[in-house]
Amino acid sequence: MLFKVAGCENIPLENNSIDIMTVCAAFHHLPDVNAFAKEAARVVKPYGSLYIAKVYLTTLLHVICNPFIPLSEEGDVKFYSSKEIQQIFEVYGI
Asked: Tens of pLDDT along the chain (94 residues)?
């Protein structure tokens, strides 16, 4: 088993080296989700899996909360819907 601590935009692993990648209640903290998606696509093996557990908010709560997220002292960036997350990763084939 391998554990490394690194930024999400420059993962210090070889191409196609991960069978399973998980992101648990952290996606809304990522400053550049597209850079992360590109890196995830690079390091996850073909037919590997990427699991993202996210904070669930209704559409109404997304609309209400997202304008205020940058004011959070918790490092939140944006709450994404499941569809938005899927679209981000589809661009990179994952």
From this structure: 567 778 888 999 999 999 999 999 899 999 999 999 999 999 999 999 999 998 888 889 888 989 988 888 888 899 999 999 999 999 998 8
pTM recorded for the entire structure? 0.85
Angstrom distance (rounded) from CA 43 to CA 20: 10
**Cβ of 46: how many Cβ atoms within 10 Å?**
7
Cβ contact 40:89 at 8 Å: yes
Report residue 80 as tokens: 């994404």
Q: What is the DSSP string of the chain?
A: -------TTS--S-TT-EEEEEEES-GGG-S-HHHHHHHHHHHEEEEEEEEEE-----HHHHHHHGGGGGG-TT----PPPHHHHHHHHHTTT-
Non-local CB neighbours of 14 within 8 Å, separated by 6+ positions: 43
